[in-house]
Each structure stands twice: as C-alpha cells, then as structure tokens.
Design a protein that fits this description.
Layout: E1 3-4, E2 33-39, E3 44-46, E4 49-63, E5 69-80, E6 83-84, E7 90-96, E8 98-100, E9 105-116, E10 126-128, E11 133-137, E12 151-152, E13 157-170, E14 176-183, E15 188-192, E16 198-205, E17 211-214, E18 226-228, E19 234-235, H1 244-256
Parallel strand pairs: 1-5, 2-16, 10-14, 11-15, 12-15, 13-16, 13-17
Antiparallel strand pairs: 2-7, 3-9, 4-5, 4-9, 6-7, 8-9, 9-11, 13-14, 17-18, 18-19
Length: 258
C-alpha cells in the first residue's frame, strides 16, 4: 500500500499493515540525500512524486509458473509532494538514499512529472490525460511502471525536453475530452542513473502550439483518428497520436518568420 506524506515524515517509522516483521522506514540522520528538482513552466503543475525503496533483507515472496517459490527484493512505496522554492518556478524534494530500518531499505526509483494545470480551458468537460512523466532508476530493479530499456547516464541527471498541449476527443464507449502533453517518447521517459545524487527536470512548454485529435464515432475499417496540427495541416493515416517531429518543424518554421 502506498502512503502519502510530507517529506519531513520520512524520518518517522511508516509501518506497512499485514507484515509479520518490522518493515518500516527509518532513515539515519546522516544518510546521503537524493535531490529531485523540477522547473515548472506557466500552465503546468507538478505531479506527485512516487518513491520506491527496496530491500534485499526483507524479501517479496511470489511463485513461478510451475508453483516454485521465487524470492525478490521487498518493496516499500511512498508518495511525496514536491515543495515550491520560495516564489520561484522550482519545485524540490530531498530523499534519503538509505531508508534504514530492520529491512535496510535503499532508494530504488522515483516517478514524477508535470501535467496541464487547467484542462477546463478547453471545455468544462475536459480532464487531464497523460504525458510529461519521468521515471529514474537508481539501481537495477525494474520499476513497476516501465517498458523498453532505460537511457543510462553517468553522474547526476539533467533532463530538458519539449512538450506541446494535445487535446484528444474520444467518442466510442462514451464521449471524453482529455488534455495531455505530447513530447519525445511515450508517456514516461525512463532513465537509469546509478551514481546520481541530483535529478533536474526542465520541461519546455509551447502552450500556443496546440494539436487536436478526434477519434472515430463509429468503429469501422477506414475510420481513423483525425489529427489537426497548429499550422492547419491534417493527418488521417491511422497513427495513435501526434507526430512530435512534425510539431517541432511547425514551431521552428513559425519562429523563423517572427
């Protein structure tokens, strides 16, 4: 069970229910710290920082396809809210690398990101969708939400990526309008930074370059999603979402004319 708490509460015991042994976090006062910093542009907001600690002492027991016992590193997840630094656009959290306790917890990975702050700008029924996420691995354990191979980096990690607002309308199965962030890669960018002690994420948001998509109203062969780009061009070739490279080209062409 993942629990939400302020960062200061990390120094307290956080017991997991249903455990025979004491699996609580008890970070030592002299633990090295991991600093997560997000520079948040106007119109975006920070997402909750999801933190995962793992333990080689307190095992997670499961069973294989043939019923054999399989022992994996135990896990303990918490949620942390990044704190704004004064009146700046920087939001930060500091996490102990050593989670301490009887299980000797160690920081394994974090998941965080940004989201569109006011989806209602695009209609009262609009809600936030997805995109703008980052997963960083500090060991070799796979995060629960991951696909593909991580980008491996040495030392501290600095991420600076471009994002565009994407308004997506869906009709089949009920009408939905979601406002997502579209950028390079999938919903989450994934990194492995085994030596990092600082992670800095700076999303660059181009609010004026909105891309719209509308899914088919009837499920029938040949009925594809229609994607409308900021320059007025349209795609109906069946792709699932916006072409990021095309968005970059449209923006750069517009900026060159200014």
């Amino acid at each position: 069970m993942i629990k939400t708490m302020p960062i200061a509460a990390l120094i307290l015991f956080v017991s997991l229910s249903g455990c025979a042994n004491d699996r609580s976090l008890a970070p030592p006062a002299d633990s090295e710290q991991m600093t997560i910093t997000v520079k948040v542009p106007k119109e975006l907001e920070t997402e909750t920082l999801e933190v995962m600690y793992r333990s080689a002492v307190c095992k997670y027991i499961t069973h294989g396809a043939s019923g054999q016992r399989v022992e994996l590193e135990g896990y303990h997840g918490i949620n942390v809210q990044l704190q704004r630094q004064g009146q700046s656009d920087l939001y930060q959290a500091r996490l102990p690398m050593d989670g301490g306790g009887a299980c000797q917890w160690h920081l394994s990975n974090v998941m965080f990101g940004v989201k569109y702050g006011n989806p209602a700008r695009f209609g009262e029924n609009a809600t936030y969708g997805a995109g703008g996420g980052v997963v960083v691995m500090f060991d070799r354990n796979r995060p629960s939400l991951s696909s593909g191979l991580p980008i491996k980096v040495d030392g501290d990690l600095t991420i600076r990526k471009d994002y565009y607002p994407w308004v997506k309308e869906s009709f089949i199965g009920g009408y939905r309008k979601r406002v997502s962030l579209t950028g390079e890669g999938n919903i989450y960018l994934m990194y492995q930074a085994l030596e990092a002690r600082k992670v800095y994420f700076e999303p660059v948001f181009y609010a004026d370059f909105v891309v719209y998509s509308a899914g088919p109203k009837v499920k029938r062969e040949g009925n594809n999603t229609v994607i409308n780009y900021p320059d007025g061009s349209v795609e109906t070739d069946g792709r699932w979402g916006p072409n990021f490279r095309k968005l970059q080209e449209i923006r750069k062409a517009a900026e060159s004319k200014q």
